[in-house]
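Input (structure):
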């Protein structure tokens, strides 16, 4: 039996060398762009916006994340919320345009009492679940530090009742996602003398709404004789704008000190923190509260973030810029506190220019 030995095969030419095999991570951006382009081409909608029920991709290499679902027996991934497509390695998820607030420890929130129970209150903070405010997590009138008794439980409605608004801090988050609040500070407690706004918070995916910033509570020195106005931006998207009353409380505590009735300012302030009666508010202060409210609504309507910097810039722009429309001679024109429509767009543009420049 004979064997023949042939010449060795010639090495491949440099231009004939095949490209290295992809590991599945080099062209992820291109894959996502193809998926997004396919969705947009089929739907004919605005680029980047996916609606519920749309097929995000049918490629089995992708994994589904939040805001998506998979059909049984199929590799197709469908969107369950309206939003933008996000990619994390091989994970596809949808960032919703509007969503519920997701509590985090340390967040300052504005809430409304929904129900009163034996030793706690249920509070609506725009989350998926109602938050809990234990009786042991509030300040007692007079600043007394003691264990809560059955007498306190019987008088629980004298502190907070259904419909009351309050500002509190997230103390902890339970395993099911519900938040536990506390008001053990002079900055927290029942809200009075103001107006309530509800906008999108950090839970939403839109560009506008309340964001976590350095300061969520500050005082604005208003013009036109309006005095000081407090602004409380809840991270959950609930906003409270009210007359500043801390100075009056401090003055009353100083008088009490002179009379040797109260020796601590905290005790004087806590005496009135659970009052349900609003103070007298002058027309100038009401007008400036309405102006600040219009500025916040204009920021939200134009998709701009709501924080101290933008609210202050929008308020200043409403004062010195020419976006305020004059009232018609017959008195039927728009008041200057109104900041909606095209007027609000001009106001926000002026505020953005001030912040950037």
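Output (sequence):
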């Amino acid at each position: 039996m004979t064997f023949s030995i042939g010449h060795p095969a010639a090495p491949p030419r440099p231009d004939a060398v095949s490209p290295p095999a992809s590991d599945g991570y080099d062209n992820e951006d291109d894959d996502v762009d193809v998926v997004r382009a396919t969705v947009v081409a089929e739907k004919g909608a605005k680029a980047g916006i996916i609606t519920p029920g749309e097929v995000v991709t049918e490629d089995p290499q992708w994994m589904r994340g939040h805001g998506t679902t998979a059909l049984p027996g199929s590799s197709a991934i469908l969107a369950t919320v309206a939003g933008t497509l996000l990619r994390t390695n091989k994970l596809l998820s949808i960032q919703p345009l509007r969503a519920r607030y997701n509590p985090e420890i340390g967040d300052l929130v504005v809430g409304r009492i929904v129900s009163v129970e034996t030793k706690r209150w249920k509070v609506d903070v725009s989350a998926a679940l109602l938050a809990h405010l234990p009786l042991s997590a509030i300040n007692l009138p007079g600043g007394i530090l003691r264990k809560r008794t059955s007498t306190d439980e019987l008088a629980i409605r004298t502190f907070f009742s259904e419909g009351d608004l309050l500002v509190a801090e997230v103390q902890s988050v339970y395993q099911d996602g519900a938040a536990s609040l506390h008001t053990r500070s002079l900055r927290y407690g029942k809200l009075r003398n103001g107006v309530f706004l509800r906008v999108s918070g950090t839970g939403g995916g839109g560009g506008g709404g309340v964001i976590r910033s350095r300061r969520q509570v500050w005082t604005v020195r208003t013009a036109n004789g309006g005095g000081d106005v407090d602004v409380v931006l809840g991270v959950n998207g609930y906003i409270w704008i009210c007359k500043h009353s801390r100075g009056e409380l401090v003055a009353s505590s100083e008088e009490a000190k002179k009379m040797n009735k109260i020796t601590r300012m905290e005790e004087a302030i806590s005496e009135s923190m659970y009052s349900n009666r609003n103070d007298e508010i002058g027309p100038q202060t009401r007008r400036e509260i309405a102006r600040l409210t219009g500025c916040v609504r204009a920021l939200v309507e134009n998709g701009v973030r709501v924080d101290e910097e933008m609210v202050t810039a929008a308020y200043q722009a409403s004062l010195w810029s020419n976006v305020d429309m004059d009232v018609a001679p017959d008195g039927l024109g728009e008041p200057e506190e109104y900041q909606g429509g095209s007027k609000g767009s001009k106001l926000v543009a002026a505020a953005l220019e001030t912040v950037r420049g």
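Notes: The mean pLDDT is 78. Residues 283-301 form the longest helix (19 residues).
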